Amino acid sequence: MIILGLTGSIGMGKSTATAMFRRLRVPVFDADAAVHALQRPGGRALPAIEAAFPGTTGPTGLDRQKLGAIVFADRAALKRLEAIIHPMLNRVRRHWLSTQALHRQPLVVLDVPLLFETGGDRRCDAVAVVSAPAHVQRQRVLARPGMTAEKFAHILKTQLPDAAKRRRADFVIPSGQGKLPTLVAIRRLLRALDGLPARHWPPGLPGGRRPGTAVIRNKVRRNKVTP
């Protein structure tokens, strides 16, 4: 089973891309949704979060506003939160991958906003980055409720720059020119991955570098679309 990592900075249109993958019948693991499930009422992460950050949880689950105020500018606090969430998220992800493998899926997508930042790209056979021009990104993000220029600037500091993500990606999916170029890029990506050997699932498969083989690289060069 081929694992495609899908990532992109805030406001780059990753949600649109994931919706297109789903319409093309490609299973997608949404890391953000999985985290929210861990933090909702009865979620497995709540007791540990409450112990580390007293007063941030309650009957309605996690109070994201309270927790956000604590970790927003405190890197040490953010690391403590990540140490709670990431191991739980990894277990959920592995269970999901096992389920997809049982259903004989040839390809799955891991939608992870901080894929490169957390080293998740090392668990993928290939990585696609959704990208749009900076002015489009800024316009999208500042239109969100409660978003400010200060918050946007802080979020960007926590994320690998878009240019660096594009350099490290095997595929770049454009999202700033309308939906058709995005869909064309995704279809081209799927053709490039069709029939390639899986290198990460099932666990224990032999293999070296993530995707890195001449075969994959040659197919990527022929099919890569950039905005």
Structural class: alpha/beta
Find the CATH topology of the largest domain.
Rossmann fold
- Provide the succession of SSEs: EHEHHEEHHEEHHHEHH
Which percent bin holds the helix content?
40-55%
Q: Average pLDDT, to the nearest integer?
A: 89
Q: Per CATH, which architecture of the largest domain?
A: 3-Layer(aba) Sandwich
Strand content: 5-15%
Question: How many structural domains in the coordinates?
Answer: 2
Instruction: Figure out the total of helices.
Output: 10
Largest sheet: 5 strands, parallel
Q: What would the principal axes of the Cα set say about the shape? A: globular
Radius of gyration: 18 Å
CATH superfamily of the largest domain: P-loop containing nucleotide triphosphate hydrolases
**Highest-level CATH class of the largest domain:** Alpha Beta
Distance between the termini: 29 Å
Give the tally of β-strands: 7
Determine the oligomeric state from the structure: single chain
Parts with pLDDT < 50 across at least 5 consecutive residues = 208-215, 221-227
Q: What's this entry about, in short?
A:
This protein is of the alpha/beta class and 227 residues long. 50% of the residues lie in helices and 12% in strands.
Question: Would you mind describing this structure in some detail?
Answer:
Helix 1 packs across helix 9 (179-193), helix 2 packs across helix 5 (75-102) and helix 9 packs antiparallel against helix 10. The chain has 10 helices and 7 strands. It has helices at 14-23, 31-39, 46-52, 64-71, 75-102, 134-142, 149-158, 162-168, 179-193, 214-223; strands at residues 2-7, 28-30, 57-58, 61-62, 107-111, 126-131, 171-174. It has a 5-stranded parallel β-sheet with strand order 2-5-1-6-7, with helices on both faces. Strands 3-4 form a two-stranded antiparallel sheet. It has 2 domains: 1-27 and 106-227, P-loop containing nucleotide triphosphate hydrolases (Rossmann fold), CATH 3.40.50; 31-104, P-loop containing nucleotide triphosphate hydrolases (Rossmann fold), CATH 3.40.50.300. With 227 residues, it is an alpha/beta fold. It is 50% helix and 12% strand. A hairpin with a 2-residue loop joins strand 3 and strand 4. Mean pLDDT is 89; it is low at 208-215 and 221-227.
